[in-house]
Amino acid sequence: MNRLYFPKFNIDLTLNGGQAFNWQKFDEYYYGVFSECIIKVKYENETLFWQTYPVQNDLKLVEKIFRIDFDYETMLAEISKDEFVNVAIKKNPGLRLLQQDFDQTLISFIVSQNSNIPKIKRSLNLISESIGREIEVDDHKFYLFPKLVELKYLKESDFFKFGVGYRAKYLQKCIKEVLEKDLSNRILKLNYKDAKSELLSLHGVGDKVADCILVFSLAFDEVTPLDLWARRAFITTYSLDTKIKYSDLLEFINKKFGKYSAWTGQFLFEYFRLKSNQDIE
DNA sequence: CGGCAGGGTTTTT
DNA sequence: AAAAACCCTGCC
Length: 281
Hints:
The protein is of the alpha+beta class. The protein has helices at 11-16, 59-65, 72-79, 83-91, 102-112, 117-131, 148-151, 156-160, 167-181, 183-186, 192-200, 207-216, 228-237, 246-257, 261-278; strands spanning 2-5, 23-26, 29-33, 38-44, 47-53, 134-137, 140-143. The protein has a five-stranded antiparallel sheet. The relative contact order is 0.13.
């Protein structure tokens, strides 16, 4: 397998957290389903072992998805100055942000709204299995995530069969809109403000889903998606008004953490989510 | 701006 | 067993 030196990486925390729904673990390897390939990875001795299928050795893709070039140390040094964030980092060392495919992330987070992780994964798998190309890796069958041009032919009732409920209509409309606007290509050149307003104009995309896409696929680190957990985390940690508006909370976070807002949010989010799972203290 | 409906599964009571 | 919650958005 190929190797990349990649110190300070907690692969379990990163791939099982709420930013990606397309990784499955078999034995000691994770297999990630993308639209162009399956990525197989494991992490050992500060090294990422990886391979891509069916086209092998796609280094560019792996470097992009794991944000290999991101200066993790400098970011940690900066945000750990905050005592609360420092605790969250200590409890979740090696947590990282990914930079995933735009189209796939868009679909994934429309499906994710008001739902839970097992159900989200099930629906996304159904979508892949129904039209994605089959790829066999290590005796496991995977199905590539369909591209928007393939999904645009599906009707609302087709999406409904994937168990996405009322989000079927959002998906069906949104895919058409994105293709008509050529957004997948254009958005790569836009700044945060313009990219977000483009996303908000899409059916089924509100503040939270838009920010998930901007952070988890376009690597806009100056904001963080404020779902219920992240919102609760920030409000509790900094004793904010429980009724604070979405945009006001984003502004508060950006003033405090600037270009590392996304990383701060991710650490606090995981810290609160895992803490409540153990439900101690 | 505020309030609520909207799949269906998981979690909590 | 029932109810509430669930990484929410569109519509009124």
